[in-house]
Amino acid sequence: MLTATPHRGKAEDYVERLKLVDPFIKVDSQELDDEKFYRLCMGSIIFRRTKLDVNEVYEGARIFTDCKFKARVVKASEEEESFHRELIEFLRAKLLQYYDRVGEEPKALPLLLALIAKRASSSPRAAIITLDRIIQRRAERINALESRDLHAVEVDLDDEASLVADVLLGYSFEEGGLYEDEREERIDADELLKRFTERSSILLEDEDIKKLKRLHNLAGKILGGSDFRLASLVNVVNNHLKNGEKVVIFTEFKDTAEYVFNELKKRLHESFADKIAMITSEEIKPPAKLGLHSKKYDIEDVKKWLKNGDVLLLVSTDVASEGLNLQVANVVVHYEPTWSPVKIVQRLGRVWRLGQKKNVTSYSLLLSVESDVAALEILYAKLLSWMVSGIERKVLIGEELEMDMLPRDKAVCDLLQIPLTTEKGRPQYSEFKAWIEFIAGGKDRLRSYVKEIVTALMRLREQVERLGLKGIEEVKVEKFLSEGLGGLYGDEAKRLLTHLLKLVARFSGYEVEERSTGIFVKGAHMTGLKDLLDFWKATESLLRDVEERAPIVLVANMPDHEDFRNLKELHLYEMTVHLDKKPTFSETAGLAVKEDGSTEILRGLSLFKLFLKLMDNVVGVGDVFWSKDEYIDMARTALLYVYYDRIVNEYVGYIKEIERLFGHIHSGWLPGGRDSVTQYVSASQRLLGVIVSAGEVGQAAPPDVVEEVEKKAMEYAMEFERRNQRVPEDVSKKEHYDIRSVDPRTGEIRFIEVKGRSPIDVAVELTETEYEYGKRIGNNYWLYVVYCFSTGSPRLLAIRDPVNKAKWRTVEVKKYRLVGV
């Protein structure tokens, strides 16, 4: 189960999620709300990673780019100043009048006032539409009262207000409220807003309507040249589009989205204006070149437009863009002040995610009016960055100010990992409550409210630390990556895979070219390869035919370096771990054989580096390799140890402790808490290949030693032939070769020259007679090099048609030395 918010401040909710993972936890949630239980779960059934963890620990690479939060504050026009000042004065007077009459209870009228404020802060267009609706519908509503009295209508509206507040402002009048994903049905926020403002307009008086008409008139004067927030948006968008970046503008309301979309099409240069699209819950408006079509577009079309460059700028409401990943854009603009800091992070998550290649910038556009400045100085400074001290500041306004909302030394990856909800009975952040506190008492009351929330969040952070959810244990993770994966991850893995791809392509006869747009394998239809997965898939494709011939034997000159001087062989195995006879884990392991016969298990990064170094020095390819492999058990044991230690043991420990604490057996889970792990876990292996040292022919050994080695080599070669169901005959005393071998199944005849070597290398020589005979026989002539008698574990390397296929160097008049295949 994958979740971005495993713990949202409610212990019961968190424990129920754990029960989904482990249904055998059949205990009351309150009993499980315990530090010991939470810590037991971490690393066994819960694994947590932040973007920062991925970059700095898991990958050691810049997988997730940087992100900046910026507040762009512009001096309001005279028209904007007048409108917002008179609006707040009206709302404040009306709310305080209500408080004097009814008391500070969250009911329909306070919600209506908060919604008017929220709509007015979105855009003058949104303000006009809402004020229009209230003014026009109030008279109709009063006339329709008939026999029902106003009090009964107020009661109905108060009941409805709780749902409206929850949907539109993230707050329920009932304690706890609803999470967005817990509602039974999706509610159109714009439609709900429209319906509620129309119905609740009846709560206003005639004098209120006069003031709203004046505000309606003031809002109309902002449209056009006096909308300085819109002018600031045009400036931001232009700058980023000119830099070749793509921009997403988020707004909460359809009418604001339409207003911004239409104005940008008028104000931007044609080359940009023709590449704007819009998404709302009602429609998707395509870029200009597609505007003539009558087709109804969907989210998949938007993705295609963005990917192909048909759209450079997207205007979207929040609900409409759910599920739309926007990594192709890297600039996010929050058009109106967002009084819910969580919403900023949710929007940013559409752009700042896996696959994003550029640094991301998030803009909040603000005016120098009381409500916007309060949002910046109090909500953003304290809530969005509540864990950061020293950033709270007064906003000094010139013509325009752009400021970073976080200090440079703070990692944005860790922002808002803790949700703004808390346990039942404790303060819970609400956009509705924030607006109401601000309307009632300005920045002072808003600051007091936010202080309560920050205090609650600090308690919640302590709780999260207690649960073990705050962060990963870096040493433990690094040990897992080192031992579990052999250190093969991150930038180093990418560099080595690139090297491997080039080698494999070269061996396959293809030319490789590196460009700024990626790696191209000419002739293999592989273009623009950029990341680890690209390189791996391309290499796998090129090796597909080779894999069918495993095991492969390669002959290489050992690099002239102290790290390789004693290396004589590298055996490569594909190791697979099985759980209850089903494969669960596999990797390639290497076994390095040194000059004295000692061995070393290699995995991951160290194996990959050695393999590539040897591949750079390959001088030939053998046809057959055979040995009575005594290394398999060694490789299998090493792999099983890693699997137990790094993967299984913590999981089994969790099951045993849970069963001890609560007595519920994990029936059907393998391995279970009462099982022996070895009862269900096994490993299999397959020899992929061997890289053998070519070596050098040294000083000749005494004749009796040479004779003994040659005798053993003949016996080993004869055994090899019999094992392969051929009928060998020793003809060394009467022919210019050693063994004549016949396959009775096919009639194939092999003329075999056998060479014995005591050291662990395949450096052998042919006499001139042997060389000429092999040249004449051709494809039926085989060279069997039987070597490694010095360790007591000989191997056989078979090369078909060695004279014509292999590389030889004349060392004497009548001898030819093998230097490569």
Write the layout of secondary structure elements.
Layout: H1 11-21, H2 29-32, H3 35-41, H4 51-58, E1 67-74, H5 78-102, H6 108-122, H7 124-143, H8 150-169, H9 189-200, H10 206-222, H11 228-242, E2 247-251, H12 254-267, H13 270-273, E3 276-279, E4 284-285, H14 299-308, E5 313-317, E6 331-334, H15 341-351, E7 360-367, H16 370-384, E8 400-404, H17 431-467, H18 474-484, H19 490-507, E9 511-515, E10 518-522, E11 526-529, H20 532-542, H21 544-547, E12 552-556, E13 567-579, E14 582-594, E15 599-603, H22 604-615, E16 618-622, E17 624-627, H23 632-662, H24 677-680, E18 681-693, H25 703-723, E19 727-730, E20 739-742, E21 749-756, E22 765-767, H26 768-777, E23 781-787, E24 795-800, H27 802-805, E25 807-812, E26 815-820
Parallel strand pairs: 1-7, 2-5, 2-6, 3-5, 6-7, 12-18, 21-23
Antiparallel strand pairs: 1-8, 3-4, 9-10, 10-11, 12-16, 13-14, 13-18, 14-15, 17-24, 19-20, 20-21, 22-26, 23-24, 25-26
**What's the arrangement of strands in the largest beta sheet?**
4-3-5-2-6-7-1-8
Large-scale geometry: elongated
Overall average residue pLDDT: 81
Q: Kindly, what is the distance between the CA atoms of the first and last residues, rounded to a whole number of angstroms? A: 53 Å
DSSP strand tally? 26
User: What count of helical segments does DSSP give?
Assistant: 27
Poorly predicted ranges? 172-185, 386-398, 406-426
Helix proportion: 40-55%
Largest sheet: 8 strands, mixed
Rg is 38 Å
Proportion of beta-strand residues: 15-25%
Which secondary-structure class do the elements indicate?
alpha/beta
The assembly state of the depicted protein chains is single chain
